[in-house]
Each structure stands twice: as C-alpha cells, then as structure tokens.
Amino acid sequence: MLPDTTKTTGVKLKTNFILVWAEGSSTPAIHEDDLYLVSGTSSGFSSGGLEFSSEIKDSLYNYVDCFWISRGVHLITIPSAEFRTGDIDYISEDGCFNQIHFYFNENLFYDAIK
Fold first, then answer.
1. Rounded distance, CA 1 to CA 63, Å?
2. Residue 42 neighbours by CB under 8 Å, 6+ apart
3. Where are the domains of the chain?
4. pTM, whole model, 2 decimals?
C-alpha cells in the first residue's frame, strides 16, 4: 500500500500587477505580434508554507502568440531562507519557450515549466 502523496495546499498568491497591452508592428490588422507588458509586485506562501514576495524589476513580456513570458526579471525575497533574496530571469535567449533561470547567492538554478 502506497501512502497518499497528493498535496492539498496550493500556492497562495496575492498580486498587484499592471498589465499594459502593447501593439506589435503589424497592428491593427494582426494581433499575434501584440504583447502584454507586466509590472508590479506579488506576495504569498508556497505549497510548503514558505512566505515570499517579489517585485518585477524588468517588465515581463508576454506575447499573445507565445502563451508564455518570453523575457523579464523578478526580484524575489524569502524571509525564512538562508539566502533571502534572488532573481528569477525569464531569459530572452529562450525565445518563446519556457526556461527560467533562478539566481540565489550567485548560483544558477533553472527549470523548464511544463
């Protein structure tokens, strides 16, 4: 018999984001090259109960035809962590894919969101 490993607690998130619709070069006829520019702050608790807050340092670029954030930088603070601050970088070299770089204490960690 296997123990139940399903988490019943999700991420709790509160945001104060500003979304600005920016027209692309082919607008108004074609909207696929338009994008949302996202700025602002967020705070909350991870699924493990850790408190965090973040601030968007470089606006996030979310192209309409990409379905993912293609560039931008968050500053993140985790008060209870050994290294309390870090950066979340949606790398622009990745184009319209989903790789994210995390920097804590000058160390790189990365993930590809599925």
1. 46
2. 13, 14, 15, 16, 17, 53, 54
3. 15-112
4. 0.77
